[in-house]
Amino acid sequence: MRVFGLTGNIGSGKSTVAAMLREAGIPVLDADRISREVTAPGGRAYDAVVQAFGRGIVHDDGSIDRKRLGEIIFADPQLRAQLEAITHPAILEAMKEAIAGLEREGHLAAVVEATLIHESGRKGLFKAVISVTCDRETAISRLAARDGMSRSQAEARLRAQMDADRKAGASDYVIDNSGNLDETRSQVERLAQTLL
């Protein structure tokens, strides 16, 4: 089975493109969802994350306050690297299990949606990498609308990530999601035919 990576910075529209790939018949595994699973109470990385970042990141129900943890790690690159060192091995293990399951189901191709493919040196795990891009102002307005971030919070999140142009340049395919959904869909449909 061929496994492709899908990346792009926060606010670029990765989830929109992932949904379109699913509609085209290609299963997509979401690294964020798997991250939430491995950091949920009882998950593979939960205890280590709480031990590293303290009970202040834990809700009353025992779940990790991802917004609070995000504020901590996006303010300090060393803390972000510490979190990634804890969670990435657990995410990778869960991802490999999910891919094996898709292969047993007979899928010819699958896509892994993950923001940090290039930053974490994981490009080699994939047949090819697809980058979703959009212009900076679009990303900022999406973050403000979707996550209720202020402009300065959105800009800080974007600054904390690899430059979008560098990410696109390091990828094998690029989907420009700056325009309307029909324009994006036509790009995704052409790409899906190539991947399959």
Short overview:
Helices cover 54% and strands 12% of the residues. By secondary structure, the chain is of the alpha/beta class. The mean pLDDT is 90.
Q: What does this entry look like structurally?
A:
There is one protein chain. The protein starts with a strand and ends with a helix. It is built from 9 helices and 5 strands; from the N terminus they run E-H-E-H-H-H-H-E-E-H-H-H-E-H. It is an alpha/beta fold and 196 residues long. Helix 2 packs across helix 5 (77-104).
Average of the residue pLDDT scores: 90
Q: Number of DSSP helices?
A: 9
Structural class: alpha/beta
Compute the separation of the termini in Å. 10 Å
Q: Which term fits the overall shape?
A: globular
* Integer-rounded radius of gyration: 17 Å
Order of helices and strands: EHEHHHHEEHHHEH
Low-pLDDT runs of 5+ residues are: none
Strand order of the largest sheet: 2-3-1-4-5
**Share of helical residues:** 40-55%
What percent of residues are in strands? 5-15%
Largest sheet: 5 strands, parallel
What descriptive keywords fit this protein?
196 residues, 5 strands, alpha/beta, 9 helices
Question: Any chance you could write out the topology, listing elements then pairs?
Answer:
Blueprint: E1 2-7, H1 14-23, E2 28-30, H2 31-38, H3 46-53, H4 66-74, H5 77-104, E3 109-113, E4 129-133, H6 136-147, H7 151-159, H8 164-169, E5 173-176, H9 181-195
Parallel strand pairs: 1-3, 1-4, 2-3, 4-5
Helix pairs in contact: 2-5, 6-7
